Amino acid sequence: MDDQVLATTVMQLYNNMLFPIDDPDWFTFLSNEMQQPYFEKILNSLAQELVEDKKFYPNSTEIFKAFAATPLSKVKVVIIGQDPYPTPDKATGLAFAVPPNLHDIPASLSNIFKSIGRDEEISNVFATGDLTSWAEQGVFLLNTHLTVPANNSLGHSSLGWKTFTDNTVQFIVKNRPKAVFLLMGNNAQIKSKFIPPSRIIQCAHPSPHSAPKFFESTPFIDVNTALMAAGLDTIRWNSVFQATHHA
């Protein structure tokens, strides 16, 4: 492979990833992380895939979507997912979210909506898989691995993203001392070692495999209870629904 082509692609990728970041706190954090040796490996690996015309998700300008959507000073809740959806036109850069025009809601997100609908006494309504309204309220939707090869779930799990998200969690813990972390499933709960126990809400993952245990819990109520205890405004989880409460 031509080293100059690879170097140019790395620089384009770097610029595309940082371009959407307006928040100076996140921009400084991300710029610093991207200079680290582990992140240089991530950039080189992704650039090599681009040069070889291999597809990965999300688009390079959306890899840091969680950081673009929620300024650090607004972060109140952190939800940690696994990795982006590996099929076309689904991954948005926000954990669990899908584009607003997608009516085929993935099973895990559907179960999240069912849990919230039960809590809010809402039923038989359409919910948008676009979770921007949560991000705007201070919900930081972070995947453990920020990219995925096409049709290969967890195919980028050895790229170095785990180090990046470990560092991100520790940065939030330090700079947003009242933020609540919702850790759904074993993979997310590995991050608990970086978080004070009083700031953690844990439950089973909402995937079909663990849905029965997930539905035994009330994680979204529990998050709001923790926010109130910390003196913070609660999250309007029902902002994704296109209807109101039953009369």
UniProtKB/TrEMBL annotation:
Task: Kindly list the places in or outside the cell where this protein is found, as annotated in its UniProt entry.
Answer: Mitochondrion; Nucleus
> What's one Pfam family the UniProt record gives for this protein?
UDG
The keyword Isomerase is annotated on this UniProt entry: no
Task: Show the GO MF annotations.
Answer: uracil DNA N-glycosylase activity
Biological processes annotated in GO: base-excision repair, AP site formation via deaminated base removal
Q: What UniProt keywords apply to this chain's record, in alphabetical order? A: DNA damage, DNA repair, Hydrolase, Mitochondrion, Nucleus
Residue intervals of the Uracil-DNA glycosylase-like domain: 68-227
Q: Which reaction does it catalyse?
A: Hydrolyzes single-stranded DNA or mismatched double-stranded DNA and polynucleotides, releasing free uracil
User: What EC identifiers does the entry list?
Assistant: 3.2.2.27
Positions of the catalytic residues: D83
Root EC class: hydrolase
For this protein, the parts annotated as crossing the membrane are none
One GO CC annotation: mitochondrion
Matching InterPro entries, A to Z? UDG_fam1 (IPR002043), Ura-DNA_Glyclase_AS (IPR018085), Uracil-DNA_glycosylase-like (IPR005122), Uracil-DNA_glycosylase-like_sf (IPR036895)
Judging by the UniProt lineage, the source's domain of life is Eukaryota
What function does the entry list? Excises uracil residues from the DNA which can arise as a result of misincorporation of dUMP residues by DNA polymerase or due to deamination of cytosine.
Q: This chain belongs to which protein, by name?
A: Uracil-DNA glycosylase
Organism, per UniProt? Panagrellus redivivus (Microworm)
